[in-house]
Amino acid sequence: MLIKEVKSRAIKDSRGEKTIEVSVNGAEPASSPSGKSTGKYETKPYYKDLKFCVCFLNAWDEGVQVRKFDDLILFLEIIKKKLKLKEARLFGGNALFSFESAILKTLAAEQKKELWEVLNSHVRRFPRPVGNVIGGGLHTKGKIKPVFQEFLLVPKEKTFSDNVKMMKKTYADIGKGLKTGKVNDEGAWSANLNDEEALKFLSEYSNIDIGVDIAASSFYEDELYDYRIIERTQPAHIEHVVKLVKDYGIFYVEDPLQEEDFEGFSEIKRLCREAMIVGDDLTATHIDRLQRAIENRSINAMIVKPNQNGSLLEVREIIELCKKHNIKTVMSHRSGETMDDALADYAFAFQCDFIKCGIATKWRECKLKRMEEIENSLK
């Protein structure tokens, strides 16, 4: 396939904020989500700004031949040379990811394949979905709300479709129980609860695993964790988190400590042997951060957000390194999403263990529906 034309523009994400969309040779466009709660180690979304990246891509005049996924390296070299960058991802996580994804969508159409087949045609194992059911932290408005950012459902049925049904049913039941019609940025229920009240509510559903994204960096300042009514030191915070995990049987624990505390993560993992201790801000979908986490034995699971990095080639390398060290991978959406459903293809093709893409709202549901389409096509 020869790259003949690249078109790019700014579009609005689910939060009404601008993000980038790219199409190649007039094929299906690709777009990037954007995060509200961002780690300081993730790649900046754009080189200079969104407008610059859009103009740069619209001026693309390199007729590159693409035959396979690994040919993306050709574009990385061109971008580095044109912009005199040390690394291609400095073009911007959102800009580079959207461009690469658009190239792969065009290649799939040209070869009459599904997107996931262009990356890995031999895969058959499906990830388990992870969905945000009660919101808190930076993702939720209101004075009375949980400090922790997300309270999650992780169904454990035999098929992906059955997992989605279980997750949606539980989501609806919880909404009725909370008696709230309000939802946050990600479609999670907004409720006047503290962290422990939310966990107690979820723990009553014994047929589904539960999780929490603590997003600890968002309430960490001056070496203290600010719980609004109380401030906790690192040891007191660890003790509190461990107690919650054990008291409520929490299966999935994301970012339990601030993004510099590799040793603290390791301590929580040691004390909570049955739980998934998941790095997000800690690892930021960057291989050097992952290597440090491996050295410190900090995590047994890792969030993978393609636009935190930008390069899908490096995303593949990160996932392969995780597998080598028995670290579970969680392909994840962002709070500001688009209707692009390619996240499902990437989660499947890279054989991630989980896909975290929400439960409700059209921007989340399209990813779940896409994964169900893939599952149904292989029956």
Please provide a written account of the structure:
With 379 residues, the protein is α/β, with parallel strands linked by helices. It has two domains: 6-119, Enolase-like, domain 1 (2-Layer Sandwich); 128-377, Enolase-like C-terminal domain (TIM Barrel, Alpha-Beta Barrel). It has helices at 50-58, 72-83, 93-110, 115-119, 160-178, 195-203, 234-248, 262-271, 287-296, 306-309, 312-324, 342-349, 362-377, and strands at 6-12, 18-24, 30-31, 128-135, 150-154, 209-213, 220-221, 224-226, 231-232, 252-254, 276-279, 301-304, 328-332, 354-356. Strands 4-5-6-10-11-12-13-14 form an eight-stranded mixed beta barrel, surrounded by five helices. It has a three-stranded antiparallel β-sheet with strand order 1-2-3, with helices on one face. The longest helix is centred in the middle third of the chain and has 19 residues, at 160-178. The protein is globular. The two termini are 30 Å apart. 54% of the residues are buried. The mean pLDDT is 95.
